[in-house]
Amino acid sequence: MKLSIVEKIGFGAGDMAINVVIIAMQLLLAYFYTDIYGLSAADVGVLFVVVRMIDAIIDPAMGVLTDKLNTRWGRYRPWLLWFAIPFGFAVYLMFITPDMAYMAKLAWAYGTYILMTLVYTAITIPYISMIGVITSDPVERLSANGYRFVMTKIAAFLVTIVVPMLAVWLGRVIRLWAISFRWA
């Protein structure tokens, strides 16, 4: 089956959305945990290793689970529907900073980062696997994946270039607004 350009862009847009979050985390999470949330760099390093070890077990398990589940909506689509909102909520929880004792903060970081990783796995493994059922034509699969990778690069550009520029601009706007109301 031949895929339209709109379908290929739509397929790529899914990866773009996921990668905006993941690239932001890769660039900012260590800084956030150490400089904003106040965790030690050693604790954050151990956290990252522990979560990657959990992820190394969960990813293949999710692959097996998605291959075995078959619903009236298909094999992969339900996972995207079930976990889209929890993914956003897990990311939100990961970046809030409840004021707690140090060990409670560390437990919060572990809990929210592990939760986000589990939900991320529940979305990305089925999403990446969908290409096998979208079309049986290997040339179309290759083309759709090409669109997916282009959208990933756009996400990287947005996070690394546009977001910092927007943050500086918004910081100025908010500062001017605060000064005009004498809040600063």
UniProtKB/TrEMBL annotation:
Gene: STY3806
Record membrane topology: Multi-pass membrane protein
Principal location listed in the UniProt entry: membrane
GO cellular component: plasma membrane
One record GO biological process: carbohydrate transport
Native source organism of the sequence: Salmonella enterica subsp. enterica serovar Daytona
SUPFAM superfamilies associated with the record: MFS general substrate transporter (SSF103473)
Protein name: Putative membrane protein
A molecular function (GO) term: symporter activity
